[in-house]
Amino acid sequence: MNAYEFLFFSDNLIPSPDKLTALDVLRKSLALGTNNSCIYLFTFELIEVGTSVEFSIGPVQQKNLGLKKPIVQLEICDNKKLVVLCDNLLQVLSIPSLEVSYNATKLKNVTSFQVHNALYEKSLELYIGTKKKSIVLLQLGDSKPQLIREISLPEVPLSFRVDGDALCVGLWSRYLLVNCAPDGTQQQQELFSLDDGQRVTPLVELVEKGEFLVTGMNNLGIFVSAKDGSSRRPPLQLDSNTLALACASPYVLSLSDEFLTVHSGLHYERQQVQTHSVNGGLSLALAREFARCGSLSHIVLIACQSGDLQAALPLPWYSQVEQMLREGQVDEAMRVAEHARQSASDAGQSSPELLAKFRRIQQAAGLACLRRATSATAKSAGQSVAEDAQKATQYLVEGRIDLRHLLGLCPGLLPPSGSVELPAPPDGLSQLAELCRAEPDRMNLLKAFLLELLFKYRVSRFTGDLRREADTALLKLCSELRPGQTETLIYSELDCDSADCLAFLASSGRHHARALLLRWLGRSAEACQVWRQLLDDSEAGDPQFPGVDYFAEYVTTLAAADADDLFWPHAEYLLAKEPERHLRVLTGCGLPPSDIVTRLESRAPKALLLYLEQHLLLLLDETDREEDRKLDGGDERLHTRLGALYLDAIEEAGVDSDSDAAASLRARLLTFLRRSKVYRAQFLLGRLQTLQSRSGDNGAVLLLPHLAELRARCGDINGALRVLLLDLGDCDAAAELCSAQSNPGPYWSALLAICLSGEHRDRLLGSAVRLLNRPDVPADGARVLPLLPANYPVGPLRPFLCSALRRALHRRRSACLAKGLAVAAQLTLSHQLASLPNCRSSISLTETTRCAVCNRRFDESSPSPSVPSTSAGAAPAALAFVLTSTGQPAHLRCCPWLHEPAAANCSNSASSSAGSPTEAAKTSA
């Protein structure tokens, strides 16, 4: 890559035998110094004709200082002054007359200088390095020079540069960093030492604000921070015997007697950008603030020993960037472009044209990274491919590339017609398109990159007005590369060309994705047809189709939308294939059970049994968890219908069949009969007895448990017990039947009576004894013992007898305890009665006496119905009274805790106002 274009500036600018020793350029002014203290001042113009560039040199001004020594340093100031250093003597000359300016400006013992401030015509501030081992800041004017600041140094300063209040000074043996505070204090810091054996000419140059560049050992150019002396960038490898440095951001130019080398301060991995051969290089001069093409630029002039001048013109930054992109130096190119854009922005020269040019460069850089990421040799380098893809994404998005340019690289991604006019393609697009067409593997990598790009920036401004094109391409790529994410993509507010996508998915064999898109578009009937074709035609299947269970789940959701046209045709299709597996289509559809039963009776009778079984047993499970809950849809008709279907299925499978299906049906029927509580037991009992009569003896025996359950449900407990005991011999089932009743005592007695009486006593005696010994048998021993044979041993009955004796003793002792407690309570009440107040004084009832409870007079209330009518001459029942604990009378009916006999006594005691108060008090107690 070339950063500069080298031109011949001029020759024979100074007469022979003078030799050029120093030069400086400011804008379009050029000052030259010779070895015999002569000064030449020129003006020049840059003439651009097409692609060629020439220099036009104006009239010359000449002056001889008369010192016969070479001019070491000179600098053109903004206030039209020329500062010259020759023979350690510093002078200030006016431009263009080259006459001495100011009074007493011939300063002696000066080693180097730097202009600090030259904004005023009548004053000039200079930093001056002296042989007195110091650097002074002087203000020169018409009067005597004024000392503003003085910095003492350990050695004579050879070169230095100033950046604000910071100075970087080069001495013979070291470099120093001096920071001057506003209060006048100074802080000196030694940066590093120079080896005496390898003498290095100390050169200091200001790179940018806050950073210096100095020459060190081993031909290194070291960057130094003006704040703390640290180095924030790696050093530059300079040429040997470096004579001069110049910094034209972002490049650093170093001059030796043979080469001019251009270094980049941005490209750490490739610092040397360009090398130019020179014949006897002497010095460099940077044309500061040179206006070219309407913007500030810089020209570097190179002085040679022959007296010739060469010019280094910087190439336009975009030309440099394009050249680096062509060479594959993407990172370097983007650093240069970003630096140029930032510099123009800082200088206030940013424009829409500059921004558009920068975005075109970003697009080209992104395509270059994309070419690198999709190259055939990049497959094995996974990390580098990922980095290149990430950079390509960043550059393409920031460069605002039109998405259709990228999608057009892959045939078939764009819909047939676009919504926005397509702009001009970016640089490098055609090259990438040719590579992708020639290499299928590169095309696959490109598709993977586009998929990641579209997924990442789907909702960002990257798509802009092209959301439809982006989603269309994204769906196609996702169905091809990531089919597992297609469903999620479709249901995420997709905005695509549906006709184009459906055709693409059909042609590429992505039938499941096509059905998903049809479903999302609201075309459920077409989606179901696609899925049914996948189920029926295994050869044309789609590996991404989850299978029949997925289709069944979707069909279940169609019941709420359109049951007749959508749900039932596909539900019947599934039930015809595997009714047991797809019965959840009916149980989860949400349709009324009555409608489902009506439909299944006429079209799928085999599925009706399974549906009722699953639906009703599910309701029974919910009822078991919440006993008081009313069954929803579990009415008598459906339950009875399920029982009848069980019997029909058992008859069809064969009542006495030994097959697993018949055994399963009998077991399911018995479970249903035991759990359900709302079927018509009498109807099912008749059907069962009819089925037993038509079947053989073996079949009738297999249905005996069901017969016992139905007889018990009909209330014929004794009949059920006889079936369980006499026909089946299942004592445990008979015992469970008795225990399940609300009042099990009589049923246990009937069970024991069947076992211990009649012709079956000998056969069932052992079972009866085992039942008697159960801990939960509520049988009365006095009634059971007479039923047992007189010669039956007591040993086997010991548990029962102990339990019966224990219960009898418990009842007797409980009765004695209750009687004792009653007597104690009566005695306690008698004691309380004797201690009641006013119980020994007379009680008088008058017309104004009121009840202490209801506050009514005793003659106002009707007789209490609980008080028996009195005989003639006795006091009315309304006058019967009791005394409260406070001694006040109250109606007998207002004290419901009293008994009728006490009321009779109370009425007798109230026959006269002088009745016995003791009796009334007892009644009250």
Compact description:
It comes from Macrostomum lignano. With 925 residues, the chain is α+β, with helices and mostly antiparallel strands.
Describe this structure in words.
InterPro entries: CNH_dom (IPR001180), Vam6/VPS39/TRAP1 (IPR032914), VPS39/TGF_beta_rcpt-assoc_1 (IPR019452). One of its GO terms (biological process) is protein transport. The chain is an alpha+beta fold and 925 residues long. Among the domains are: 636-715; 737-835; 843-924, no CATH class. The protein has 30 helices and 30 strands. The strands form 8 sheets. Strands 2, 3, 4, 5 and 6 form a 5-stranded antiparallel beta sheet that branches. Strands 1-28-27-26 form a 4-stranded antiparallel beta sheet, with no helix packed on it.
Give me the secondary-structure topology.
Blueprint: E1 4-10, E2 20-26, E3 29-34, E4 38-49, E5 52-57, E6 61-64, E7 71-76, E8 81-86, E9 89-94, E10 110-117, E11 124-130, E12 134-140, E13 146-152, E14 159-163, E15 166-170, E16 174-180, E17 186-193, E18 204-208, E19 211-215, E20 220-225, E21 236-237, E22 244-248, E23 251-255, E24 259-264, E25 272-277, E26 281-292, E27 295-304, E28 309-314, H1 317-326, H2 330-346, H3 352-373, H4 382-398, H5 403-407, H6 429-438, H7 440-456, H8 467-481, H9 486-490, H10 498-507, H11 511-520, H12 524-536, H13 548-557, H14 563-577, H15 584-587, H16 593-603, H17 605-625, H18 636-653, H19 660-675, H20 681-694, H21 697-702, H22 704-713, H23 717-727, H24 731-739, H25 744-756, H26 761-772, H27 781-784, H28 798-834, E29 881-883, E30 889-891, H29 900-909, H30 917-924
Antiparallel strand pairs: 1-28, 2-3, 3-4, 4-5, 4-6, 7-8, 8-9, 10-11, 11-12, 12-13, 14-15, 15-16, 16-17, 18-19, 19-20, 20-21, 22-23, 23-24, 24-25, 26-27, 27-28, 29-30
Helix pairs in contact: 1-2, 1-3, 2-3, 3-4, 6-7, 7-8, 8-10, 10-11, 11-12, 13-14, 16-17, 17-18, 18-19, 18-20, 19-22, 20-22, 22-23, 23-24, 23-25, 24-25, 25-26, 29-30
